[in-house]
Amino acid sequence: MTSAPVQIDVLALAREQVLERGEALNESQVLEVLQLPEDRLEELLALAHDVRMKWCGPEVEVEGIISLKTGGCPEDCHFCSQSGLFQSPVRAAWLDIPSLVEAAKQTAKSGASEFCIVAAVRGPDERLLAQVAAGIEAIRNEVDIQIACSLGMLTQEQVDQLAAMGVHRYNHNLETSKSHFPNVVTTHTWDERWNTLRMVREAGMEVCCGGILGMGETLEQRAEFAANLAELEPDEVPLNFLNPRPGTPFGDLEVLPASEALKSVAAFRLALPRTILRFAGGREITLGDLGAKQGILGGINAVIVGNYLTTLGRPAEQDLDLLVDLQMPIKALNDTL
Ligand code: SF4
After folding, report:
1. 208 labelled as ligand-binding?
2. Closest CA to 322 of 62, 74, 104
3. What's the CA-to-centroid distance between 259 and ligand 1, angstroms?
4. 166: which of 21, 36, 285, 320 is 20 to 30 A away, CA to CA?
C-alpha cells in the first residue's frame, strides 16, 4: 500500500531552507507563502525578521533621494505621475547644482550613507549626463556620502561614463514580473530594462532593482517577480506599494490591504535572504503609521529619508527615531565602501 505524500508546511520548510541554510525560496514556494491565510501572518513576519537578522545583520541602511529632473517623461508607465502623457499634476522641472549639494548635505546629516540622484527620463541625454557629472563633482567636494543614480535606460557608453564618475550604485526598477510588464508599460520592454541592469552589473556598479506591488498583478505574477529579482541578484531591492495617482491609468486601482503588503514583503525576504530590502514609496497609505515598525520587524533593512520624489513620505526623524526604539543601528558609511 502506498501512503499519500506528506504535505510539508511552507513556513517549516522555509525555516530549515532559508533561515538555517541561507537558500532562497523558489517561485512556487514564494507563491505558497503569498497564499498563506491571515492567521499565519505574525509567524511569517517573525520568520522573515529572523532571516534578515541572520543573513544581513541588524544594521539598517538609510538613503536619501533627490529629483534632478521631475516630470515630463515621454514613457507611459501607468503608475507614474511623472509621465508627460497623462493628465497628472507633476510639471517638468530641473534642480540646480547648489540645491543638489544642499540636499546631499542634509541627507548626510541624517546619518544616511547613500544619496541617489533621480531623473524622470526614458534614458539620459548629453545635457543630463553633464549635469549629473557636475553635480557629483560638487557633492564630492563637500559631502562624504556614496552616490547612486537612477536615470532610466542606458547605453553601454553611458554605463561606462557613470562608472568612470564613481557612481556606486545604479537604480533601475523592473517594476513588476516579466509577464505583467506589458500591462504596465507599453513604450519600452522588460528586456530593455533587464539589459541596462546587466550592463550596470558588468561595469562593477552595485545594482538596485525593485518595483511596485499592487498594480493588478496576480499572486502568481507577484511570485514570478520575486523569482525574476532573485535571478538578477541585485544588491538592493526597493519595494513600493502602488499609491494610485490621480490622472494616471492606475489612478483608480485599490490600495493593497496592509496585511497583504506585509505578507508580500516577508515573502520577498524569503526569496532574497541576503539582499538589502528597502521600503520605498507608498507605504504610508498602505500600512499607516504602524507599517514602518511591522516592516522593519518583518524583513526590511533599509529606509529612505525625506520625500519620495512626487509624494510626501514620513518625516525623516520619525523613521530614525523608530530605529533607535528598535535598537537597530544605522549602517555606517565605512561599512558600505
Ligand atoms: S520611465 Fe520613469 S519617470 Fe518615466 S514614466 Fe516610467 S517610471 Fe515614470
Report:
1. yes
2. 62
3. 28
4. 320
**Count of domains forming the chain:** 1
Residue 69: how many other CB atoms lie within 10 Å:
22
**Do 108 and 115 touch, CB atoms closer than 8 A?**
yes
Q: Dihedral of the CA atoms 295, 301, 307, 313 (nearest 10)?
A: 10
Does ligand 1 have an atom closer than 6 angstroms to the CB of 215? Answer: no
Determine the atom of ligand 1 nearest the C-alpha atom of 73: 4
Which triple of cell numbers denotes residue 88?
497628472
In tens, the pLDDT along 134-151 reads 999 999 999 999 999 999
Residue 36 phi/psi, 5-degree rounding, is -60, 145
Residue 290 region, left (φ>0) first, then alpha (ψ -120 to 50), else beta? alpha
Domain that holds residue 325: 26-335
Which residue lies with its CA nearest to atom 6 of ligand 1? 77
Q: How far apart are the first and last CA of the chain?
A: 61
**What's the confidence (pLDDT) of residue 310?**
46
Residue 16 lies in a domain: no
In a domain, 14, yes or no: no
Instruction: Report, as an integer, the average pLDDT of 239-264.
Output: 91
Does this model's pTM top 0.85? My answer is yes
Euclidean distance between CA atoms 202 and 316, whole angstroms = 34
Question: Does 149 count as an annotated binding residue?
Answer: no
> Would residue 8 count as lying in a domain?
no
Asked, for residue 110, whether it belongs to a domain, the answer is: yes
Q: Span 266-272, mean pLDDT?
A: 97
pLDDT for the residue numbered 44: 95
Burial of 312 (0-12, 13-18, 19+ CB in 10 A): exposed
209 is in an annotated binding site: no
